[in-house]
Design goal:
binds ligand PS7; 366 residues; mainly alpha; binds manganese (II) ion
Length: 366
């Protein structure tokens, strides 16, 4: 029967479900609702990438330890008994790496097509993360992406590849078309929409931990209303000065450039969602996408984003979960948030015209 291979009663799989709840704020519920095999397969994919991301995020690890761990994580994931106990005590998900052997064992029970897809994506993501870490270690370079193209590349490694891998798994399950796994452009866009929203919202948390993801082209250059010397200056004036005039306003223009850059991926994401046939897969992809659009609208022109960790209200999230059921409804949700953003844009913002165009494109899609 179905339960014999789904492993619902294996202690190792039970522990993996525990870890999914412990490590995921946003994905746990939608992953568990996936149909058939897919719930377990995507749960394991999530845990492998969560383990890899825990290593990437750990700023207490020296490059000499971190670099090979990231580059070889796909091999470790196939080595029975591998665990990593060297994460700093403050890493919130360090226990997952301590008990990583349960994930490795469950990967071993997966059909080969699924396992190979998960391992191939993990290898590419680990190499990409390591490349960016190496640049941050290099004293001659400023940490973080230089240009917007560079920012797109980083986001491709940590999120576009997740979209690519998920599409491969959906196709391999037979629940989605075999063509879906080949739509790399569209699945990349879904990942970039989510990742760029997360990077924009998490400004303060990331800067406080000395993690810099905003592209220098946006925060240092005048074109997008920037001109700051360091990311920190957007929330705290440089040492020895009182708050400079215009800092708040320029920070707002940089923030609006970040929201605008994320909005670029909205229509491709709608195209991706339109290709899906399975209801449980649709919900899994659409709910994080509408949450991202709500989060972008919350961030836009919101000075609180620079000082605290802002989140959409529980009632808004609950309503989005209920409404994100089909492509037309989801496009209306996108349009609703695009209209709110457009209505709050100021003509004095250097990004004003580009914002109008981006919102207009979403409007046109519907
Ligand atoms: C396998 C579901 C649906 C075609 C661990 C889902 C961190 C935003 O670090 O935890 O706490 O600020 O809030 C997810 C495309 C990836 C991109 C990426 C794997 C959508 C490791 C999610 C998630 C592709 C790198 C979590 C990208 O944010 O971040 C699975 C289609 C992991 C998806 C990271 C971020 C995800 C993220 P943090 P969060
Ligand atoms: Mn998280
Ligand atoms: Mn992270
Ligand atoms: Mn990370
Ligand atoms: Mn985090
Ligand atoms: Mn984040």
């Amino acid at each position: 029967n179905e339960h014999a291979t789904s492993g619902w009663d294996r202690p190792t799989m039970r522990r993996c479900w525990d870890f999914l709840d412990m490590t995921s704020r946003s994905f746990s519920a939608v992953i568990k609702e996936l149909e058939g095999d897919l719930a377990r397969v995507v749960c394991l994919f999530y845990l492998v990438l969560r383990g890899l991301d825990t290593i990437e995020d750990d700023m207490t690890l020296p490059g000499s330890v971190k670099d090979p761990l990231l580059r070889n994580f796909h091999k470790h994931s196939l080595t029975p008994g591998f665990s990593f106990t060297g994460s700093g005590p403050d890493e919130k998900d360090r226990q997952l790496l301590v008990e990583y052997p349960v994930v490795i064992e469950e990967l071993g029970y997966l059909p080969e097509a699924y396992r190979n897809a998960i391992i191939a994506i993990t290898e590419k993501m680990g190499a990409g993360m390591a490349d960016f870490c190496a640049r941050a270690e290099d004293e001659k370079q400023v940490a973080g992406p230089e240009t917007i193209a560079d920012y797109d590349l980083y986001c491709h490694y940590v999120a576009g590849l997740v979209g690519e891998g998920l599409s491969l798994l959906f196709s391999a399950s037979g629940k989605e078309s075999p063509h879906l796994g080949a739509q790399l452009e569209l699945s990349n866009s879904m990942g970039l929409l989510l990742q760029k929203t997360n990077i924009t919202r998490d400004f303060r948390e990331d800067v406080d931990e000395r993690r810099y993801f905003w592209p220098r082209e946006i925060w240092a250059g005048a074109q997008y209303g920037g001109g700051f010397g360091r990311m920190e200056e957007m929330c705290t004036p440089p040492e020895g000065t009182v708050s400079l005039p215009g800092v708040r306003e320029r920070a707002a223009w940089v923030q609006s450039a970040m929201v605008l850059d994320a909005l670029r991926h909205a229509t491709d994401s709608l195209d991706y969602l339109r290709m899906l046939k399975n209801q449980s897969v649709f919900n899994f992809c659409a709910i994080p996408a509408t949450m991202a659009m709500a989060t972008l609208e919350l961030c836009f022109m919101n000075p609180r984003m620079f000082t605290t960790n802002i989140k959409i209200r529980k009632a808004v999230a609950a309503s989005l979960i209920m409404r994100s059921t089909n492509p037309r409804e989801v496009s209306y949700i996108f349009r609703e948030f695009a209209r709110k953003i457009h209505a709050r844009a100021l003509p004095s913002d250097p990004n004003f015209i580009r914002i109008s165009v981006a919102c207009g494109k979403i409007e046109q899609w519907c």
